[in-house]
Write a structure and sequence with these properties.
Elements: E1 2-7, E2 16-20, E3 26-29, H1 32-45, E4 48-53, E5 57-59, H2 87-110, E6 115-117, E7 129-136, H3 145-162, E8 178-180, H4 181-189, E9 203-206
Parallel strand pairs: 1-4, 4-7, 6-7, 7-9
Antiparallel strand pairs: 1-2, 2-3, 5-8
């Protein structure tokens, strides 16, 4: 499966992407439109997995003290300061909302027959099938484009490693209830009319 990751940032400044085909040929760059064109071309030829390196869904809870706490899986060594609601997480979350919506709208224009889905346990093998997921790259130190591209490559590798056995591949973040920002982007861009995508979490792939 052709696999791509967009490391979310401000287009033209702090965004990078990487992608690989089934033969292992890697392409990368920093231009968001180049990435979209590459993904669209691949989608016309076969299935594609596209990941975004930013929180794609947020937990919804009924305990006031935990409303803004880190998602389960976003905690651990070196991650104590990585809740989705804290400064860095909140910034990339908001940036991701606008960037992902743009990406999905442009992809819809280029591949109107495309179908998006979240269930990685049953990857589809047909043309126009787009599996969407979240990349979670830890220990990031991003000061230039090259680092964003490298993080995208790390996420691609982690996803492909996990998908060697989709049946046992588990999401790095699991919460019982959520609001999906990725689902909202699908509705906005015309990829879906099913409101259930708003509370369906996507796969989260964490790199080591």
């Amino acid at each position: 499966m052709f696999t791509a990751v967009i490391d979310i940032g401000t287009p033209g400044k702090t965004l990078g992407w990487a992608a690989t085909d089934v033969a292992g040929k890697m392409v990368d760059g920093t231009d968001i439109d180049d990435c979209i064109t590459t993904v669209a071309e691949a989608l016309r030829k076969g299935p594609v997995a596209l990941g975004f390196e930013a929180p794609m869904w947020i937990p919804t809870r009924m305990e006031p003290a935990r409303l803004t706490s880190a998602r389960k899986g976003n905690t651990g060594p070196g991650l104590a300061s990585r809740p989705f609601s804290a400064s860095a997480g909140a910034t990339v979350l908001v940036t991701g909302m606008v960037v992902v919506t743009y990406v999905m709208r442009r992809l819809r224009e280029l591949v109107p027959a495309g179908e998006a889905y979240f269930d990685w346990h049953v990857p589809r093998k047909d043309t126009f099938q787009l599996l969407l997921w979240e990349a979670f790259v830890t220990n990031q130190k991003k000061s230039h484009h090259a680092r964003h591209v490298e993080d995208a490559k790390l996420a691609v590798a982690a996803f492909l490693a996990g998908m060697r056995d989709p049946d046992t591949f588990q999401s790095s973040v699991i919460e019982p209830d959520c609001v999906s920002l990725l689902g909202a982007a699908l509705l906005k861009a015309g990829w879906s009319t099913d409101l259930s995508v708003l509370n369906t979490p996507c796969l989260v792939v964490r790199t080591n």
